[in-house]
Here is the input.
Amino acid sequence: MPANNPISSDKAIEAALSQNWKEAIRINTGLVKKDKSNIDSLNRLGFAYLKSGQMTKAKRIFQKVLKLDPYNQISLKNLKRLTSLKRKSLQGSANQSISPLFFLEEPGKTKIASLINLAPTQVLSSVSPGQEVFLKAKNHVVEIRDGKNSYIGALPDDLSFRLIRLLTGGNSYKIVVKGIAKNSLTVLIREISRGKRYAQHPSFTPSVSFVPMGRQPMGEKPDVTVTGEEEDGQQTE
Here is the structure.
């Protein structure tokens, strides 16, 4: 195939992030034709069908995934969504696009964090990679909540302490879900603006890398050292 062939996982992810479900269906259908057991492509295809309101097709795709991987959390979650949401709700939820560039880290401006004290499975089942979530500072912890203000999880103590200080100083941030796996959820935090107090101070330790959206590899444990913003920070037991 030509080197510039648009049928690729990166293109499929880009289409999903920009909420271009027609293109996502086209690309993922092509990927599935090449490899009928490609679970990632199947899940993306099912999700694209779900978001475009083609619920019967979405259900069929997710059921196919579960034949290949009976404990696949993405398909289990989305099948549950199919039984609880109406077509109008599914289509209406895709009213905001997130640029793939959001997942490109910038020195001092972005941070990946694994949440602690996660919400019950039935709450997490409504969360999807790429979804925007929100910070809520409470006492000595920063909680992560969805658009309906439902609790999802909390940031580790050291990162919570740092963000509470920065938020108090007038900084603002945007957060999206990076990945979901069994018993773990990671978010990407991006600095949007700085208050006068911290105008010359980066929010996070500088690093540069591309952050792919999607599932955390099966069997991979969350990296509990991803925060590390304060050397004397303590983690919650």
Observations:
- The helical segments are 9-17, 21-34, 39-51, 55-68, 73-84, 87-92, 121-124, 157-168.
- The first strand starts at residue 110 and ends at 114.
- Confidence is low (pLDDT under 50) at residues 91-96, 207-237.
